[in-house]
């Protein structure tokens, strides 16, 4: 059996393969999925999370998100000593997944003039740039994510159904709270691919918007910890 570290790499890579992949299909020029829209994007992110959990759940617990790992450690459900290795694995997986998407859509980068669209394949950005409001949105989204994951776990659900249900949770979060910021709700999902965007030789790319990069890192950690603490107080 593979190690929990490798399971987190593979699971997080699955999320980005489908997530970055669908954004690339929707925003890059001359893609057959160009302009397919937000519903298509949110469905693919949900499917990516579902498959990432199926790939890693029995091995690592399928955190696939530093905010989830830190939140679980905060309420004593995960050892702090294992937090750094899990987070490193998640960042590696997110970087690798988005890099594979870059390769898969290789001819389309040169065809696409919009630098912001190219960055959107890798990382999130706000619809209205208001950093305190953007931070709050990311915190709220991740609060709901962690709180919901924990209360889903209190139910007796048929074996193998939890990843499917959490995939639907991601879909619902995207539909309801994705509009303001693109719902990163996961520091690795945003920062890992943003680093890939900065490093990869993407034709005609712009800057990686490092001035915003802290928001989808700090917001999800705050929201995730508060979600876990609220769950612990209530349940």
TrEMBL record:
GO molecular function, one term: glycerol channel activity
Localization: Membrane
Key words, A-Z: Membrane, Transmembrane, Transmembrane helix, Transport
InterPro entries xref list: Aquaporin-like, MIP, MIP/Aquaporin, MIP_CS
Superkingdom of the organism of origin: Bacteria
The UniProt record lists the keyword Phosphoprotein: no
Topology in membrane: Multi-pass membrane protein
Bilayer-spanning residue ranges: 6-28, 35-56, 87-105, 131-152, 164-185, 213-234
GO cellular component: plasma membrane
Family under the similarity heading: Belongs to the MIP/aquaporin (TC 1.A.8) family.
Pfam families tied to this protein: MIP
Record has Transmembrane helix as a keyword: yes
Protein name: Glycerol facilitator
């Amino acid at each position: 059996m593979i190690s929990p570290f490798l399971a987190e790499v593979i699971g997080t890579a699955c999320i980005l393969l489908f997530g970055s992949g669908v954004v690339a299909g929707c925003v890059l020029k001359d893609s057959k999925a160009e302009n397919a829209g937000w519903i298509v994007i949110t469905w693919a992110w949900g499917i990516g999370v579902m498959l990432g959990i199926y790939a890693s759940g029995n091995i690592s617990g399928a955190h696939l998100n530093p905010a989830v790992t830190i939140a679980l450690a905060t309420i004593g459900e995960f050892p702090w000593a294992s937090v750094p290795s899990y987070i490193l694995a998640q960042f590696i997986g997110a970087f690798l997944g988005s890099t594979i998407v870059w390769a898969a859509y290789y001819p389309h980068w040169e065809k696409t003039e919009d630098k912001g669209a190219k960055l959107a394949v890798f990382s999130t950005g706000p619809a209205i740039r208001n950093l305190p409001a953007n931070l709050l949105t990311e915190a709220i989204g991740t609060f709901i994510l962690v709180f919901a994951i924990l209360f889903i776990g209190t139910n007796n659900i048929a074996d193998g159904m939890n990843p499917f249900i959490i995939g639907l949770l991601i879909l619902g979060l995207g539909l309801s709270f994705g509009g303001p910021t693109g719902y990163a709700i996961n520091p690795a999902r945003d920062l890992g691919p943003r680093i890939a965007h900065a490093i990869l030789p993407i034709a005609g790319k712009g800057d990686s918007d490092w001035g915003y990069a802290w928001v989808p890192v700090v917001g999800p950690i705050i929201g995730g910890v508060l979600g876990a603490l609220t769950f612990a107080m209530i349940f």
